[in-house]
Amino acid sequence: MVLHPPPHQHEQFILKSALYSRLLVLSLTITWRILASPYDSSAPLNLPCLTANHTHTHTLPQSQTLLLPKLASALENGIVWDSVYFVRIAQCGGYEYEQTYAFLPLLPISISFLSRHRAVLAFSGYLICNVAFVFAALYLYRLSMIILKDPEIALRATILFCFNPASIFYSSIYSESLYALLSFAGLYYFVKGGNNLASLFFALSGCARSNGVLNAGYLCFQTMHRAYNAMFQQKRTALALGTVIAGALRSVFVFAPFVAFQAYGYYNMCKGRLPDELRPWCKARVPLLYNYIQSHYWGVGFLKYFQLKQLPNFLLASPVLSVALYSVVYYAKSRPENFFSLGFRTSIEEKSSGVVFLSDDFYRSKKAGNVDKSSVKAKGIFV
């Protein structure tokens, strides 16, 4: 029995599935909020902003200033957990407290264009996050098509993403959807050979979530392989040096937004204060605000999560973790040479079939039909 549409209709099917999955999640969210009291009771809290130029927005309850006060109240009741911080930053036009610097600025900036009213910010947040998820699913499918080269498997992977166990985070006012969209888009253009455009999307992902800087790893890995090929296979030292410089510049570009945000936090929280007023992280040799906040306020750090009280969360994540671990072990056993050599022993055909690892000159020649695969094999080019 055929369960999926033909390949040329897959993208349309993906968009519909992503949209329906968001509607399902939002419906379930509303239903459970009606049936049960929320665990987080911070939604009604709406204290005046500390900055004087924004205090006028709080002279009246904001739901009373809108045409649909019941809808506004319902939207504001959905501002819980991390959403409180994102909306607060957008509402007050900046970062008021030290702990708010754990939340990067892309989402607050994105939701603040229409209005500073709390209900409108909530509506903008829900709209942007859910729309971002739909397009993230589309980019994931396109990326999977290139990597997997199988429309059916790519479709199944994307459908699993649409209905993943963590779906609620992608439909709330959280940064996960924007991050997924920017990361998938960056990877898509990366494997298509558009390194500059990929670097832009990776840098923007670092404006959404701190782990966006890890996307620079794709560029570094590619640079390592290209430089190796240029130096040891093509014997072109100048090309190898140019490859390293270009890769380094792109990686710095990806890191730049996060580093700039840390500098912004240092300037606001440390600059111009007396020594006895300085926070501990201000006095550090490398004053990294983000690490301090995560450790001090949320107890986040290397292996800190591995506690007995977190056992229920590990059990909840165990199905997905098991599948991921099985996939890694399966690939390592089936392709041990590729796995343990970090791809340096992968054949030229495999390298050129997906992710771009070799030099731009090679791919320009490949597109022009000037690459003789038999001669490449004879030269023993394994990069």
UniProtKB/TrEMBL annotation:
Q: What is its main location?
A: endoplasmic reticulum
Pathway the protein acts in: Glycolipid biosynthesis; glycosylphosphatidylinositol-anchor biosynthesis
The superkingdom listed in its UniProt entry is Eukaryota
Q: EC top class, in one word?
A: transferase
Quote the subcellular location field of this record. Endoplasmic reticulum membrane
For this UniProt record, the keywords arranged alphabetically read as follows:
Endoplasmic reticulum, Glycosyltransferase, GPI-anchor biosynthesis, Membrane, Transferase, Transmembrane, Transmembrane helix
Residue ranges annotated as transmembrane are: 120-141, 153-173, 238-264, 314-332
Query: This chain belongs to which protein, by name?
Result: GPI mannosyltransferase 2
